[in-house]
Amino acid sequence: MTSPTPFIIRIDKIVPGGYGLGRLPDGMVVLVRQVVPGELVRIRPLARKKHHLFAELLEVLEASTDRIAPRCSAYGRCGGCDLQHMTPAAQLRLKCAALEENLLRSNLPEETIALLPPLAAPDHFGYRQRIRLHADTSNRLGYHRFQSHEVEPISHCPLARPEINKVLGCLQALPAHARLLQQSTTLELFFNPDRATVALLLHFQRKPRPADLAAAKEVANSCPELDPILFTVAGQGIFDRKGRQPAPGEHQLSFTLPAAVTGTTPLVLSWEVGGFCQVNLQQNENLLRTVLAWARVGAADRVLDLYCGMGNFALPLSLHAGEVTGLDGQGAAIRSAARNALQAGRPNCRFTKVPVPAGLRQLLTAGRTFDLVLLDPPRQGAAEIIPLLPGLGAKRLLMISCDPATLARDLNGLRQQGFTIQALLPIDMFPSTHHLETLTLLER
After folding, report:
1. Is 212 helix (H, G, I), strand (E, B) or coil?
2. Coil, strand, or helix at residue 90?
3. Could you give phi then psi for residue 365, rounded to 5 degrees?
4. Over the stretch 362-403, which tens digit does the pLDDT of each residue have?
5. 170 — phi, psi (to 5°)?
6. DSSP letter, residue 96
7. Cβ 128 vs Cβ 429: under 8 Å
8. Structure-derived torsion over alpha carbons of residues 256, 259, 263, 268, reported in degrees to the nearest 10
9. Which residues have C-beta within 8 Å of that of residue 162, sequence separation ≥ 6?
10. Beta strand 186-192 pairing with 130-135
11. Could you check whether 7-67 and 253-443 share the same CATH topology?
12. I want to staple 20 with a disulfide (CB 3.0 to 4.6 A). Which of 11, 53, 77, 342 is the partner?
C-alpha cells in the first residue's frame, strides 16, 4: 500500500486543540500539529473526516519568526506539550485568538465577548506542581505519546517543578524503584509547596506486600525529598509504606496564600495527596487576586461556591464576606475544605458533600438566596445547573472555565437566563500547551 501523497499548504491560524489550520487546493480543511500561522509546510494526510483531514508535519519550508527551538528533547513525540515550538508571546496571542473565534462562532454577540488583556504566566517552565507518569516494559518512566498509550520515556520534564525533576532523576536510578514498577505502571509526583518536599503515589495492581514495602523503604532512604510514599489500590484505598491504611486526611499537601493575595491575612490551604489543586500555583494566586477584586463582597454578603474543591476560592472569599457555602461531590475535597476553614478560624464557611445539581435543588427548596455565585465546573461544564441559578437571587456570578467549547455553550445558556457578560479574562494557566483558563464576570 502506497503512502498518501504529501501536500504543501500555508497555515492560516491556530484552532482550539492547538492544531494549525490550512487548506488543500480543493478547499479541504487540514489540521496539523507543531506549526505556526503564516508558515509554508509540507504535510502528509493521516486521517480523512467528512469536512477535514488530519495530517502530520513533514517539513517547514518557510518558518515564522514566532518559531523557536523547543526546550524539551522529547517534544513532538511526548503528548504533554503542543505549543513549545512557539515564543511565549505568540502562544498566548494565538490561544486568545482561537478562544475569541470559538466564542463568536457560538453566536455570542461580538460586543459581549471583548477579551480583557490576558494574565500571562510569569514562568513558562518549572511551574507544574504535579505530574502523572507511566512505565514502559523496560521500567522507563514517561508520558503517553499523542493519542496513544505508548510511553515516551523522559528523564526530565521542563514543565515540572525542579523539586519534582530531582526526585524523578533519583527514582530512575534506583533498582528498588524498578521492583515497585513490576506492580505499578502509573505513578504521580506531587510537590508540597509549604514543606518543599515531593509526595509519591504509586497506582498499584494489588495490596502492597512485604517485599514492596521494603523496596519503598529503600527508595525513601535514597530520596530524602520524598515524603510520603503511598500506594493506591483500586477498590481497596490507600496504603502507606508501612502497609497500613492512613486515616483520611492524614497525608496532606499545603500552600500559603500571602496577605498581598487575600487582602487581609495569610491563609494556609491544604488538600489530600491525590486530591485536586491547580497545577500552577503562581497563576492560581493571580486568578485569586482577580476573583477577589471582581467579587466585591462585604460583611453582609452571602456567597455560594459551586464545585468548591478544597476551598481555593471559598476560603479567601470568607475573609471578606459574611457567609460562604461550598458544595462539591468529592468527599476528599470537602474534608479538606472543612479542615481548612477550621484551621483558619472561619466559622462563616459551611461545606457540604453533595452532587452539585442535587445540592442546588436542596438550597432552592429551602428558599436560600445569595449575593454572589461562583462556579468552577469540571471540563464538561455547567449545563445541568444553569437553569437553576436564577432562583438563587444572585446579581453577580463568577465562572471559571478550562474548555472553550463548554464555555461558549454555558455563556449562551446564562444569557438565556438573563445574565449579561461584564468581563472575560483569559488566564495562561498551562504555558506550552493549547489549554487556556478563563474567568467571566456576569450580572443579572
Report:
1. helix
2. helix
3. -60, -35
4. 999 999 999 999 999 999 999 999 999 999 999 999 999 999
5. -65, -45
6. H
7. no
8. 20
9. 126
10. antiparallel
11. no
12. 11
Specify whether 402 is catalytic: yes
d(CA 408, CA 103): 5
Q: Which three cell numbers stand for residue 98?
A: 482561537
Q: Pick the closest to residue 97 from 62, 66, 60, 51 (CA basis).
A: 66
Closest CA to 215 of 240, 234, 241: 241
Q: Does the pLDDT of residue 20 top 90, yes or no?
A: yes
Instruction: Give yes or no for residue 1 having a pLDDT over 60.
Output: no
Angle at 331 between CA 327 and CA 337, to 5 degrees: 60
C-alpha cell at 323: 457567609
- Type of residue numbered 217: K
Q: Check: CB of residue 278 under 8 Å from CB of residue 429.
A: yes
Domain boundaries, the chain: 7-67, 130-246, 253-443
All 3 cell numbers of residue 174?
A: 534506583
| Fold type of domain 130-246 | OB fold (Dihydrolipoamide Acetyltransferase, E2P) (2.40.50)
Residue 422 grid cell: 461584564
DSSP letters spanning 142-191: EEEBTTSS-EEE-S--TTB-HHHHHHHHHHHT-HHHHHHTTS-SEEEEEE
Domain 253-443 has CATH 3.40.50.150: yes
278-300 pLDDT, tens digit each:
999 999 999 999 999 999 999 99
CB 269 within 8 A of CB 254: yes
Count Cβ atoms below 10 Å from residue 272 Cβ, excluding itself.
23
Residue in this structure with the C-alpha cell 452539585, named with its chain if needed: 356
What's the DSSP call for residue 241?
A: T
For residues 317 and 324, give the distance between their C-alpha atoms in angstroms, rounded to a whole number.
7
Residue in the structure block whose three cell numbers are 496513544: 148
Find the helix packing angle between 88-105 and 404-416, rounded to 10°: 40
**Using an 8 Å Cβ cutoff, are 415 and 344 in contact?**
no
Fold of 7-67: OB fold (Dihydrolipoamide Acetyltransferase, E2P) (2.40.50)
The residue type of 320 is: H
